[in-house]
Write a structure and sequence with these properties.
Elements lengths: L7 E6 L5 H10 L3 E6 L5 H7 L3 E4 L25 E4 L1 H10 L2 E3 L6 E9 L16 E7 L2 E4 L5 E5 L7 E4 L4 E4 L11 H11 L8 H16 L4 E5 L3 H14 L3 E7 L7 H12 L4 E5 L1 H7 L6 H22 L5 E3 L4 H4 L22 H5 L2 E3 L7 H10 L4 H4 L19 H20 L8 E15 L2 E14 L7 E2 L4 H14 L3 E6 L13
Parallel strand pairs: 1-2, 1-3, 3-4, 4-11, 12-13, 12-15, 13-14, 15-16, 18-20
Antiparallel strand pairs: 5-8, 6-7, 6-9, 9-10, 10-11, 17-18, 18-19
Helix pairs in contact: 5-6, 5-12, 6-12, 14-15
Bound molecules: xanthosine-5'-monophosphate (XMP).
Xanthosine-5'-monophosphate binds next to loops.
Length: 520
């Protein structure tokens, strides 16, 4: 079976905070690209990668520091177009015979305006139609002399060489960041670059589906594959794709840990077993999980207990299907990008996210990860390509530890039951008001306290609920969603009227940071 090839671009990462955005802009242009840290890209690697074009990202370093990050030497001799951004521009000039100066008094951070020179070039097609262009700068050092062969196409107040080009070699270098939102014509610049580099825009979900199916068949052969299904978009898309490739060699395991939302288990089971006809083990292990969690209130202990039990249950069922050699996971590209860290150490663990890491080695299994090259929105596009229903593809993310981390303090079956019903009313309200797709994630949490209320003529002493809704692009940062007062009061009233055991509702107005999305 031959692998289907597509044009590839490599982004050499010098540690910019926004390198991933370069990849986003390129993927939007149907260009396949990968990000690799500069210290992992040597001449041999680059030759083997055989990129059709190269981009140097920005980065926090200075070309003057000892051991300053440098690209591999061969990159300038491969005859492929290069685009250097910010530090990428400086390093390019430094390597090719130009000069960089320290930025005393000439640093630029934030919005700036670039004016065109007399010299026009196709890399700027669509630029300067309405005068100067807004760009986003973030640099200390700057280029003070361009390398031989380069021309200046644009200047800003503090960057006389804001846009430079060497058309013979198709080397382009800019001081600003075209990948960010605040450079409105930035996407056009990338479009021009990939056009000049000869990309066909062949990275489509249809092509990806075909390629992924070939690769799965080739990797798995006649062996059995097992896939842990959480009911989330990633594992579902992975399972459906793998099933399309190898049919009933795939078995899915859906573990009901007693921490799922109202009706969730039934929905997942019916979709996979009845609609997609994928062999599915529905493991109802709620007693096992809930008994183990009795009396546990520490969030990390909850996560670890759930993770450990999940592995145990999964292992038990994997054995029952007669020796699967492969484990399928819905790992995404942001999880595998190895970014350059200048902080000098591992980052602090805020929460130990639950996954099945460690399982493949322990069970002697190999991984099948057909979504490893995709971003979240590309997984959704692939889901649409595979015919998954729109309401399923657009589902809000749901954490592995489930309702356990939406029930701060001790978990009881009574609290879980109240929480499930209240959450269903809240989500129903959001859907009725057509707000679901504007929100990244919305859920109710049951607080570890009871409060006094009055209903009818009687005193109540019931649980308080927190409602949470956030907007976000990747879950890393988030803003709380600005519901109207009418929406909030209508929702609070409905929850208190419809769910026995709740007499007070709060709305969480914390963004992330300083909060996190989940309460634990
Ligand atoms: P936080 O609460 O860290 O959440 O701001 C960011 C995103 O991750 C989800 N989340 C988890 N997902 N296992 C998961 O699979 C976990 O332990 C976990 N904790 C948080 C959360 O729902 C949000 O989408």
């Amino acid at each position: 079976m031959t692998k289907i090839a597509h044009d590839r671009l490599i982004i050499i990462d010098f540690g910019s905070q926004v390198t991933q955005l370069i990849a986003r802009r390129l993927r939007e242009l149907n260009v396949y690209c990968e990000i690799h840290p500069f210290n992992k890209v040597d001449d041999a690697f680059l030759r083997a990668f055989a990129p059709k074009a190269v981009i140097f990202s920005g980065g926090p370093a200075s070309v003057f520091t000892d051991g300053a990050p440098m690209p591999p030497k061969v990159v300038f001799d491969m005859g492929v177009p290069i685009l250097g951004i910010c530090y990428g521009q400086q390093v390019m000039m430094h390597c090719l015979g130009g000069k960089v100066e320290r930025g005393h008094g000439t640093a630029e951070f934030g919005r700036a305006y670039v004016a065109p020179t007399e010299d026009r070039d196709p890399i700027l097609s669509g630029w300067f139609e309405d005068g100067n262009e807004q760009v986003w700068m973030s640099h200390g050092d700057h280029v003070s002399e361009i390398a031989p062969g380069f021309r200046v196409l644009g200047t800003s107040h503090n960057a006389p060489f804001a846009i430079t080009a060497d058309n013979k070699r198709h080397f382009y270098a800019v001081q600003f960041h075209p990948e960010v939102h605040h450079t409105p014509k930035g996407a056009k610049l990338y479009e021009n670059f990939v056009k000049l580099a000869g990309f066909q825009g062949d990275w489509t979900m249809g092509a990806y589906r075909e390629k992924a199916i070939c690769n799965i068949r080739e990797q798995v052969g006649a062996e059995k594959v097992i896939c842990g299904l959480s009911g989330g978009v990633d594992s579902s898309v992975a399972a459906i794709l793998i099933h399309e490739a190898i049919g009933d060699q795939l078995t899915c395991v859906f573990v009901d840990n007693g921490l799922l939302r109202l009706g969730e288990a039934e929905q997942v089971v019916s979709m996979f077993r009845d609609t997609y006809k994928i062999p599915l083990i529905h493991a109802d292990e709620s007693d096992l999980f809930l008994n183990a969690l009795e009396g546990v209130s520490d969030p990390e202990v909850k996560r670890k207990t759930i993770g450990r039990l999940f592995i145990e249950v999964f292992e038990k069922h994997a054995k029952s299907i007669g020796g699967a050699k492969f484990l399928a996971q819905g790992t995404l590209y942001p999880d595998v990008i190895e970014s350059v860290s200048f902080s000098g150490g591992p980052s602090v663990t805020i929460k130990s996210h639950h996954n099945v890491g460690g399982l493949p080695e322990k069970m002697g299994m190999r991984l099948v990860e057909p979504l490893r090259e995709l971003f979240k929105d590309e997984v959704r596009a692939l889901g649409r390509e595979l015919g998954l229903p729109a309401h399923f593809i657009g589902r809000h993310p749901f954490p592995g530890p489930g309702l356990a981390i939406r029930c701060p303090g001790e978990i009881t079956r009574e609290k879980l039951d109240i929480l499930r019903r209240a959450d269903a009313v809240y989500i129903d309200q959001i859907r009725k008001h057509r707000l679901y797709d504007e929100i990244w994630q919305a859920f109710a949490a049951i607080l570890p306290m009871k409060t006094v209320g009055v209903m009818g003529d009687g005193r109540t002493y019931d649980y308080a609920l927190a409602l949470r809704a956030v907007t976000s692009v990747d879950g890393m940062t988030a803003d709380y969603y600005p519901f109207t007062h009418d929406f909030l009061s209508e929702t609070a009233t409905r929850i208190i009227n419809e769910v026995r055991g709740v007499n007070r509702v709060f709305y969480d107005c914390t963004s992330k940071p300083p909060g996190t999305i989940e309460l634990e």
